[in-house]
Design goal:
The complex is a heterodimer. Helices cover 18% and strands 29% of the residues of chain A. By secondary structure, chain A is an alpha+beta fold. In chain B, the strands form three sheets. A seven-stranded mixed sheet of chain B has the order 5-13-6-7-10-9-12. A four-stranded antiparallel sheet of chain B has the order 1-2-4-3, with helices on one face. The chains are: A alpha+beta, B alpha+beta. Chains A and B meet through strand 14, strand 17 and helix 5 of A and strand 3 and strand 4 of B.
Chain lengths: 328, 242
C-alpha cells in the first residue's frame, strides 16, 4: 500500500519526533520543525504521538492514496481539499490537494499507522544535509510512492468507526491549532545567550527593539534574520571558543545578521551567541515563512520553564479532547 | 582538604567547573575552561563519559566540546536544568573517572596528499615556508587526538598538528569541499564528512567514509580517539576498498 505524489509542492519530507542521543557525534536531533503540530496530527488519526508524518512547507502537494486512509493535516492553515485539524477518511484513488499556506508555514499530514519507511538511528526523520532518513534521505518528488502500513484500510475504518461526531468522511469537531501565528510580528521569548554581555549596550537594545524578518535563505538548519545588522562585540571580545549549540540558539556571524538554529542545526558553533529562544516558542517560529516578522522579549529561565509547562498543559488538554472523541 | 598523594597521581582530578551556562531552558553547558587547553579538554571527555554512563533518563544528549560539556534534557523535565546539570557533574567528579586511555580508540586514517585532492597544499607550503612534500610528511607524522566532534556529523577537530603547519583558515570559505577532504587550520586538522561548505586549508583526502548513518558505528571518529594519518598513493586511494 502506498500513497503517490502527483505534485510534490515546495519541500515535503518525512519527519517524526527526531533522532536523539547522537549530538556527541555531531548529528542534530532534527525531526519535525513544529513538533506540537506533529503530535496533534498523530493523535487525530489514533497514532502513537511520535509517528512519522509528511512535513509540508509553504506550498503543499497533490497526493493519491492507494487505499482507504484516515489522515489529519495540522500546523499551518493550508488551502486544501480536506478539512484541517480533524480526522478525515480519504477513499482509495481519491486525490488530496494541498495548496498554499494561508497562515503559518509548515503542515503535518499524519496517516493512520504512520509512514513505515526504514528507521535510521532510531528515527524516520529525513536529514537532508546527510542524505539519510525518511524517503531515501531526500525531499519528495513527483511520482514517489510513499509506503503505508499493510492494513491501512482496515485500521483506518476501525479507527474512524470509533469516532464521535462523525459527519460524512470527517467529523464536526476539530483540534485547536496551537502554533499557527495569530498576527505578525510574533513575539518570541529569549534568554540571554552566553555572549550577550559581550555585545555593546546599543547592540543589545537593537536586538530587542528590531522587528526582524525571516530571510529567504532560511531552511531547516537555520533561519537568517533580516534587519539592520547588529554591531559585533569588539575584537578580542568576539574571539570565542567553539562550543555546543542548541535548538533556538541565536548566533551573530560577522555579517551582523542573526541566525536562529532550527531542527537540523549544527551541534557546535563558533559565532557569538546573543540569545536562546525559549523552547516553548520555537514551534511558533517554525511556522513563519520567509518574509514572516518577529521580535524578541527577554525572559528569565523561570519564565521559560513556565512557558514550557503551559504549552505542555494546552497540548495535553487538546490530546484529552481527542481521546474523548475516540471514546477513550 | 585535598588528598595530596592522590592529587599528584592525577592533578586534573581537582578541576572544577568555571561556569554553568544555560543553553536555553532545556540544555546547559558546564564550562571548565574558556580557552583551549588540551589537558582540560581530555578531562572534559572523561567527565562526559561518566555523565553518559549514569544513563539518566531525562538526559537526551551529552556533548563534550573543547572546554566543557553540554547536557541536553528532555523538554518534559520539570527541574531547573542548569542546577541539575551542575549537581550531576559534581557527583561524577566525586567518583573515579575512567582514564583517558580507556575512552578513546586508536584509529589510522589513510590520506592521499596528491595535488588532485589538495587544492591548498601549495599555498600552505608558501605561507608556512615548508616544502610541499614536507607539509604532507609533517602532517602524516603527527599524533592527533580528537578534541571535539561538531560542525557536521562525524566532523572531528583534531589537536596535535605540527606547529610549523599552523596557519589561519582561508579568508573566504569554499562553497563546496569534497567529502573526505583532510584540512588544517590553526593548530588542528579536520576531515570533512560530506561535500559541504568549509574554510579550512585542504591538503589531502581520505578514501574512508567518515560518517555513515547505516553503519553500526556511524562516525569513524569520536571525541578522545587517538588518530594517526598514513600517506597513501593515488593508486592506493583509487583502489581502496575494491
Amino acid at each position: 500500500m502506498t500513497l503517490r505524489v502527483l505534485r510534490p509542492g515546495i519541500l515535503m519530507t518525512v519527519q517524526d519526533e527526531g533522532r536523539h542521543g547522537y549530538q556527541h557525534l555531531g548529528l542534530c536531533p532534527g525531526g519535525a520543525m513544529d513538533p506540537v503540530a506533529l503530535t496533534l496530527a498523530n493523535a487525530l488519526v489514533g497514532n502513537a504521538l511520535d509517528e512519522a508524518a509528511l512535513e509540508i512547507t509553504v506550498l503543499g502537494p497533490d497526493l493519491e492514496f492507494g487505499a482507504d486512509t484516515m489522515v489529519a493535516l495540522c500546523g499551518a492553515e493550508f488551502e486544501a481539499s480536506i478539512p484541517l485539524n480533524r480526522p478525515v477518511l480519504v477513499e482509495a484513488g481519491r486525490l488530496v490537494h494541498i495548496g498554499r499556506a494561508m497562515r503559518g508555514a509548515r503542515g503535518y499530514l499524519a496517516v493512520a499507522g504512520g509512514l513505515p519507511t526504514e528507521p535510521v538511528l532510531g528515527s524516520r526523520s529525513t536529514y537532508l544535509p546527510g542524505g539519510f532518513g525518511g524517503h531515501e534521505g531526500r525531499t519528495m518528488r513527483r511520482g514517489d510512492a510513499i509506503p503505508l502500513v499493510a492494513n491501512v484500510a482496515a485500521l483506518s475504518l476501525e479507527r474512524f468507526q470509533r469516532l464521535k461526531g462523525k459527519s460524512g468522511r470527517s467529523v464536526r469537531w476539530w483540534a485547536p491549532p496551537l502554533t499557527a501565528p495569530d498576527r505578525e510580528p510574533i513575539l518570541l521569548h529569549v534568554i540571554e545567550g552566553e555572549h550577550y554581555g559581550r555585545f555593546e549596550a546599543a547592540a543589545q537594545r537593537a536586538f530587542l527593539d528590531t522587528i526582524w524578518s525571516v530571510g529567504s535563505e532560511s531552511n531547516r538548519m537555520g533561519f537568517r534574520l533580516g534587519g539592520a545588522p547588529l554591531a559585533r562585540p569588539a575584537p578580542g571580545e568576539s574571539e570565542i571558543l567553539s562550543g555546543p549549540t542548541c535548538l533556538g540558539t541565536v548566533q551573530v556571524p560577522a555579517s551582523g545578521q542573526p541566525i536562529v538554529l532550527m531542527a537540523d542545526h549544527q551541534t557546535t558553533g563558533g559565532y557569538p551567541r546573543i540569545a536562546e529562544i525559549a523552547h516553548a516558542d520555537v514551534p511558533r517560529l517554525a511556522q513563519l515563512a520567509p518574509g514572516g516578522r518577529l521580535h524578541f522579549a527577554r525572559c528569565s529561565l523561570d519564565i521559560a520553564a513556565q512557558l514550557r509547562k503551559a504549552l505542555r498543559e494546552r497540548l495535553d488538554a487538546a490530546l484529552h479532547g481527542i481521546a474523548w472523541e475516540y471514546g477513550n | 582538604m585535598h588528598d595530596r598523594s592522590r592529587r599528584s597521581e592525577d592533578p586534573l582530578k581537582q578541576l572544577r567547573p568555571t561556569a554553568v551556562i544555560p543553553l536555553g531552558d532545556v540544555a546547559a553547558y558546564v564550562e571548565f575552561s574558556r580557552v583551549l587547553d588540551l589537558e582540560v579538554n581530555e578531562f572534559v571527555q572523561r567527565v562526559a563519559a561518566a555523565v553518559r554512563a549514569r544513563g539518566e533518563p531525562w538526559i537526551r544528549d551529552v556533548v563534550p566540546a573543547l572546554g566543557g560539556l553540554a547536557l541536553h534534557f528532555d523538554p518534559d523535565f520539570e527541574g531547573v536544568v542548569g542546577d541539575v546539570a551542575a549537581e550531576l557533574v559534581e557527583r561524577c567528579l566525586k567518583e573515579d573517572l575512567s582514564p583517558a586511555e580507556e575512552l578513546g580508540r586508536d584509529v589510522e586514517v589513510p590520506v592521499c596528499y596528491d595535488k588532485l585532492f589538495a587544492p591548498d597544499l601549495e599555498e600552505v607550503a608558501a605561507k608556512t615556508g615548508v616544502a610541499t612534500e614536507e607539509v604532507a610528511a609533517r602532517h602524516a607524522a603527527g599524533q592527533y587526538r580528537v578534541l571535539m566532534i561538531g560542525f557536521a556529523p562525524g566532523h572531528a577537530y583534531m589537536g596535535g598538528l605540527d606547529a610549523k603547519l599552523a596557519m589561519p583558515r582561508r579568508a573566504s570559505p569554499r562553497a563546496r569541499v569534497e567529502a573526505g577532504s583532510v584540512a588544517i587550520a590553526n593548530e588542528q586538522s579536520v576531515i570533512y564528512p560530506f561535500a559541504i561548505a568549509g574554510g579550512w586549508n585542504i591538503i589531502g583526502r581520505t578514501p574512508l567514509t567518515v560518517f555513515d548513518a547505516k553503519r553500526e558505528r556511524p562516525s569513524l571518529l569520536s571525541a578522545g580517539d587517538r588518530v594517526r594519518f598514513r600517506a597513501i598513493s593515488r593508486a592506493e586511494f583509487e583502489g581502496f576498498g575494491k
